[in-house]
Design a protein that fits this description.
Blueprint: H1 2-7, E1 14-15, H2 18-23, E2 29-33, E3 42-43, E4 52-56, E5 59-62, E6 70-74, E7 77-81, E8 93-102, E9 111-118, E10 126-131, E11 134-138, H3 148-154, E12 159-166, E13 169-174, E14 177-183, E15 193-196, E16 208-217, H4 223-230, E17 236-237, E18 245-249, E19 258-259, E20 268-272, E21 275-278, E22 287-291, E23 294-297, E24 310-319, E25 328-335, E26 343-348, E27 351-355, H5 365-371, E28 376-383, E29 386-391, E30 394-400, E31 410-413, E32 425-434, H6 440-446, E33 455-459, E34 467-471, E35 474-479, E36 489-495, E37 500-509, E38 517-523, E39 532-538, E40 542-548, E41 556-557, E42 570-577, E43 580-586, E44 601-603, E45 611-617, E46 628-639
Antiparallel strand pairs: 1-17, 2-16, 3-4, 4-7, 5-6, 6-16, 7-15, 8-12, 8-16, 9-10, 9-15, 10-11, 12-13, 13-14, 18-32, 19-20, 20-23, 21-22, 22-32, 23-31, 24-28, 24-32, 25-26, 25-31, 26-27, 28-29, 29-30, 33-36, 34-35, 35-46, 36-45, 37-42, 37-46, 38-39, 38-45, 39-40, 40-41, 42-43, 43-44
Length: 642
């Protein structure tokens, strides 16, 4: 799992398993080799249809796949699969996905076929292969050549590949990113032989490397669906891993007037005199309530991220049941300061409208009655001249309108830009903007509840297994072990890129011994004795800071008041700039910050990935008390501008 986490850093956020049940509803999985249960030479198809046979003299089962077991092919090894899988394709469209770990001891540049489908002659009808230092989707088109840094990382590491054929177009994806596409023109007709890992006779080179999770879909997967394919079976990646997401307001702040963009780019400002934070949102977290003249004035530069005249705006709404019927109110507006706006979505009488200039959608009477006081999902899609409305994942209206997105200089949510708009009365949650027209499947993905992006595990050799719970933004973490020497603790963490600041309020810490610790950590890979800096509270010692300046080095104390009892709640902070991590603490909710010593900084030998999170440990467990529990709230990780 660690290797998966490293090479899926940008898709580490996970959703509950029900997302998968509809995420790929429009394109079906028709073949899936997990390589977890090879029986003799039979490779079972998890869909129960197209089993394969292992042939050749250079293959072995590998227990260390990406998700369970894999297969290692080190020369003349191959899976000869049932070619009838291709008859399940409804047209000239197919997506093949798999994980590969190329053998780092193989001669460079690598040469080898990943899959081939053909009629027994040469060249095959289609195939994917490594060819010198290139990845190719044959026949007849230019290959994708990884940059040198990526190429050096391919050998010995797991990476995800997707090969998509959509009519005349072929496309390659690498770790969820589209890296090459071209118009090639060949048809899938006539496939009578199909193999994985080595060539059909007479002309192919065998693959040298390990493979896991080989899948074939009977159509074209979207970018989002390819990310979902990368996730562990039974799970799916969160929508905010979608590279097309350009703005995401979860409305979970609970205080203040800043609305934070979860992507860290386009924060908004709450204005007006009729809005409140609400703790009851669609996913049992926060939301925003607009009760008249309340609005979010958002950064209009989000629209500059749109590559063309396409956009999708999604949100959850719970209209005020006490408002006069019919409801009237703007959900969002984007314009140039004049009236009418360039585009907006709104309630208008008993209709939902995507302006300008087209017929609205009127819910049927039964739906209309149920709208008030209940959460519903809305999506507004502009695809060139076409505008569409989706209600709870179903398209309910579409029309050709013709207006352009050019010229947007003002953007607000929940109430109108001057001079002509009516304010919204109701609650809103999870407002998002995507820089293209989402498919129906992707809109249903957007409706799914995101699970925590945090990973929780014990680090080092702990005395008792720890645990964690994250509910309504409150982290309750129980851990044992000693964050000193030896190095062991309970860690709740996530991977973070670039420079950033992590802040959390330590609200309570169980006093098992005087050096029980609960606090914030920044460092390299989540394992014992990694380079890290740690600011923490201890019951009898107050707030202290320590560090391990390099991998495997001994711990270094960075200061703190001796024999000064801990007062909770206390706000803890670690700031990473380059390789320097600096700590601070505050007893007045961040108005003023103190330091464990005059210069509470550590210059760490940070190499590779960096993680940040919350760590809890007990230095000297007592009889009947081998663990301690710490409670944190208001946890945030904020990117710092370069």
């Amino acid at each position: 799992m660690i290797s998966r986490r490293v090479y899926l850093s940008f898709v580490v956020l996970l959703l509950s398993s029900f997302l998968t049940s509809f995420a790929l509803a429009e394109v079906e999985l028709v073949l899936h080799y997990t390589f977890d249960d090879v029986n003799g030479v039979t490779v079972p198809d998890a869909t129960g249809t197209y089993d394969g046979i292992m042939e050749g003299d250079a293959w072995t089962l590998d227990p260390n796949g990406v998700f369970g077991g894999g297969i290692a092919m080190n020369g003349n090894g191959r899976v000869v699969s049932d070619p009838n899988v291709w008859s399940d394709l409804p047209g000239d469209a197919v997506t093949l996905t798999f994980w590969l770990n190329m053998d780092p001891t193989a001669a460079m540049p690598w040469v080898g076929h990943i899959f081939l489908a053909g009629d027994g002659g040469w060249p095959p009808i289609i195939d994917g292969r490594f060819w010198d230092d290139q990845v190719v989707f044959w026949p007849r088109w230019g290959p994708w050549r990884p940059d040198p840094d990526t190429l050096a990382d391919i050998g010995g590491n797991w990476h995800h590949y997707a090969f998509v054929k959509d009519g005349d177009w072929k496309t390659i994806y690498f770790d969820g990113e589209q890296v090459q596409t071209a118009n090639t023109g060949n048809s899938l007709d006539g496939i009578t032989e199909f193999s994985i890992g080595a060539a059909l006779a007479p002309g192919g080179e065998p693959l040298e490397g390990r493979m896991d999770e080989f899948c074939i879909y009977n159509g074209v997967l979207s970018d989002m669906e390819i990310l979902i394919d990368m996730a562990e079976p039974g799970q799916a990646v969160a929508i905010n891993s979608d590279p097309n997401l350009v703005l995401d307001y979860p409305f979970d702040e609970g205080e203040g007037t800043i609305v934070h963009d979860a992507r860290g780019i386009y924060d908004g400002m709450l204005e007006g005199d009729a809005w409140t934070w609400d703790t009851d949102g669609i996913f049992d977290t926060g939301s925003i309530a607009f009760n008249g003249n309340g609005r979010v004035v958002s950064d209009p530069n989000v629209w500059s991220d749109l590559p063309g005249d396409e956009v999708t705006i999604t949100t959850w709404l719970n209209m005020d049941i006490d408002s006069a019927m019919p409801w009237v109110g703007h959900i969002f507006l984007a314009g140039d300061g004049g009236w009418p706006p360039i585009i907006d979505g709104r309630f208008w009488a008993d209709q939902v409208v995507f302006w300008p200039r087209w017929g609205p959608w009127a819910p049927d009477p039964n739906t209309l009655v149920e709208l008030a006081g209940n959460w519903h999902h809305y999506a507004f899609v502009k695809d060139g001249d076409w505008k569409s409305i989706y209600f709870d994942g179903e398209q309910v209206q579409t029309a050709n309108t013709g207006n352009s997105l050019e010229g947007i200089t003002e953007f607000s949510i929940g109430a109108a830009l001057a001079p002509g708009g009516e304010p919204l009365e109701g609650r809103m949650d999870s407002f998002r903007i995507f820089n293209r027209a989402l498919t129906p499947a992707e809109i249903r993905n957007d409706m799914a509840e995101p699970e925590s992006e945090w990973t929780s595990e014990d680090i080092g050799e702990v005395a008792v297994e720890g645990s964690s719970d994250i509910t309504d933004g409150v982290f309750t973490i129980t851990g044992s072990g000693n964050i000193w020497d030896p190095d062991a603790f309970r860690y709740v963490y996530q991977k973070v890129e670039g420079d950033f600041e992590i802040v959390a309020s330590l609200d309570d810490l169980e006093a098992v011994d005087e050096w029980t610790k609960g606090g914030l950590m920044i460092g390299n890979a989540p394992h014992a004795k990694a380079a890290n800096a740690y600011i923490y509270g201890s019951p009898d010692k107050g707030v202290h800071m320590q560090a391990r300046l390099a991998e495997g080095a001994g711990p270094t104390w960075l200061g703190g008041p001796q024999n000064a009892g801990l007062v909770t709640p206390v706000l803890l902070k670690l700031t990473k700039v380059g390789n320097v991590v600096t700590g601070g603490f505050s007893y007045d909710n961040g108005v003023t910050w103190d330091a464990p010593r005059a210069n509470p900084s550590a210059s760490l030998a940070l190499e590779g990935d960096v993680y940040a999170g919350l760590a809890v440990a007990v230095t000297t467990p007592k009889a009947g008390m081998p663990t301690a529990t710490a409670v944190f709230s208001n946890v945030s990780i904020t990117p710092l501008e370069p």
